[in-house]
Amino acid sequence: MVKRLEEQRRDITKKLEITTKHANSNKRKAVHFWKLWRQQQAPQNKIRREPRQIERDNLKKCRSTDELIGEGRFGCCKKMMYRGRVVAVKHFKDCSDKAVHNEAATISELDHPGLPFIFGVCTKQQPFLLVMEYYGINGTSVTIARALKGKMLFGQPEWTDVVLQCSKAIAYLHSKGKIHCDLKADNIVLQDSDGVTRPVIIDFGKVKDITTAKTKKLSLVDQEFYRKRHKHIAPEIVRGTHPPSTASDVYAFGLIISLICHYYKFENLRRIAVQCIHGTPEKRPSMDAIITTLDNNSV
Ligand SMILES: Nc1ncnc2c1ncn2[C@@H]1O[C@H](COP(=O)(O)OP(=O)(O)O)[C@@H](O)[C@H]1O
Ligand SMILES: [Mg+2]
Prior knowledge:
Elements: H1 2-41, E1 59-61, E2 67-72, E3 75-82, E4 85-92, H2 97-109, E5 118-122, E6 129-133, E7 142-143, H3 144-149, H4 156-175, E8 178-179, E9 188-193, E10 196-201, E11 208-209, H5 220-229, H6 235-239, H7 246-263, H8 267-276, H9 287-298
Antiparallel strand pairs: 1-3, 2-3, 3-4, 4-6, 5-6, 7-9, 8-11, 9-10
Helix pairs in contact: 4-7, 4-9, 7-8
The structure holds adenosine-5'-diphosphate and magnesium ion (MG).
Domain Protein kinase: 63-299
GO molecular function: ATP binding; protein serine/threonine kinase activity
Binding site for ATP: 90
């Protein structure tokens, strides 16, 4: 009897070993095919080239002073000279070279007049730098926020055109499978180009791929903090019910348009803003739909 039981035990152990071996082999195959499938689903995740390294010595101060044009939690931005051109140099603090390379790679993969042109990075030593074209009006860096506060600029046709140019730049970004995730009036600079004011969207530190953006659960305290301090983050992201999406970019863009309408009573823009900041992401218009509305407005 004992002998028979012992034989049965050995038999079962052997079968279990074989089954485990099969399961592990199938698991490896599944992971392999899942990775292949992911690569096919996200062609924009292709191998990224290292960004161009700039020689630090080629960067000079403008008029022998450090001209600070912006300061944030992750560093500051200075107006400098690079091989005879005026450039904006983002200085990073407490940031990995990987994060700087990601921001630089994203910008260099995009080619649109409403998005910045990048010259390269300095990531061989601290502080890490990102060097891009400088955009300004009469030599001064002017964000949409500053233009509104300073009561600068123009009337309804000009603001409508700025909103239209921004919409085209965001639609282009979305068509490349990217979401900006940090659209706000401080992250759009205005450029005087041949007498026409053109917006350029900056700050690609939070950009995500549409296909891999993830839902994030925030504590109730953090949710409250975001609602107060980061109003441009869409409510579904703060609640943790949806991942960042093209619709959450549309929400943030809607708040920028609302801000313009806070200073100027532009009925055409106000109507678009109301649609963009709809509480339900699925009910917000796409950037292409916004462009069509604005184009029809201007006819
Ligand atoms: N290319 C640029 N041309 C002109 N001003 C710029 C440029 N890039 C950034 N700035 C200015 O520097 C500020 C900070 O830059 P940003 O990239 O938004 O950094 P942060 O991640 O610290 O917010 C902007 O709000 C803007 O005023
Ligand atoms: Mg910024």
